[in-house]
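Comment thread on ticket #2218

A.B. wrote:
> Attaching the input chain for the structure job we discussed in standup.
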Amino acid sequence: MGNWSELPLDLLEFIEGHMNLYIDKVRIRAVCVSWNSHLSKMPNHKVKQLPWMLQALDNKREAPHGLFNPLDKKVYEVDLPEAQGKLFKGSSFGWVVTVEDLDSNSLDDMYLVNPLTRTRIKLPPRSKFPDVKSYHADKVGEEYVVFTHDYFDAEGFRSDPLFGGFDSEDYDSDWSTEEFEHKLQTIDSHFVSKSLTWKVVLSSTPYDDNCTVVAIYGHSERLAYCKCNDKKWRPINVGEYGIGVLDVIFHKGKLHAINDVGDLLVFENIGVDSDIKATEEAVPMRATQTAYLTECFGGELIVVKRYFDFSRIIIHDPKNPLPRTNGFEVYKLDSINSSWVKVQNIGDDILFLGLNSSLRISSHDLLGQKGNCIYFTDYTFSFDINKGQEEDSDVGVFNLEDGTFRSMPGFECHPRFLWPPPLWVNIV
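C.D. wrote:
> Ran it. Output below, let me know if you need it in another format.
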């Protein structure tokens, strides 16, 4: 055919409808502009796809992005202006959560972006989180006034403005004005986006009317939630289990969370009056790590702990290398003995961990790749890209059997000063 754009549209839809691989859906949209504009904004994926790694290819604001496919070991350049000048704060069901970065005219916005179709769905802005007392876009460098961790009550937080929306008459009348102001902090938009917005996950595709979006946020790593058409984020009360949430996941229809003392929390419902259950024994933890929740072992929920080498850091030396991953441990719950058991074999599974909603894929779907491994992306330590950290990204593959690291097959590590750090994107 001399002109592909003249292909009958019903035939084009028929061909695209029989494509199961993400790579094929990317390629068919790249043939010509008319195909890309005509094909559905929400592809009907029939099988579980391998996650791809979304990454910045340059530090310039207008630079393109790349999608690394671990199956064919290639990086596909994508024109994604919807993600330019944005920070990635999570990915679920093929959608990437973005928040505004520096040099933006709309520093408060949050979106869901589909990197394949470029569809964008607006979420409630960052100024509508429970930790924000006020937001002033015109006060450059002082846009946000937020509650600090010193503000929170240790009794369960139900009387706080965080659990009902702030109003000047809501706070405890026993506090003096001076005491109240000590619990507030004025900070800039970039810091809020980078360091006070940690991770966002979805319960389902955003086109599902029941989709719930959950975020880890704030000085004390708390939880908030919203629906895609909401105007604000609402607090999730974690009650006696306190603060310091490290990861969240929707598992068998329920929200699960793990905090920094190892409590695994199961939410029967979410909100100010959350009904929470916790395992009797906490996962053993230590300070220099984070943790992930993911499915494995035929649908079981497991905890993966990630360790970092902080010995390389010299305080006040911005040229010194950043922390790097130096190990992982996997734990599963022994429900009979109510205890956590360390495991070194997850069979043929491969785990994909990072800012994404954690994923597991059978190695049988990754031709030539070994199972019992963890594919990980850079952890989002809050460092200043203007300092010019020249070392490679903290991206690689960890072998659980022998505890060794190797580079990701076919992936060319980019310098760590490229921002934002890469993350896995799954299409289901």
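A.B. wrote:
> Thanks. Noting for the ticket: Residues 42-47, 150-182, 382-389 have pLDDT under 50 and may be disordered.
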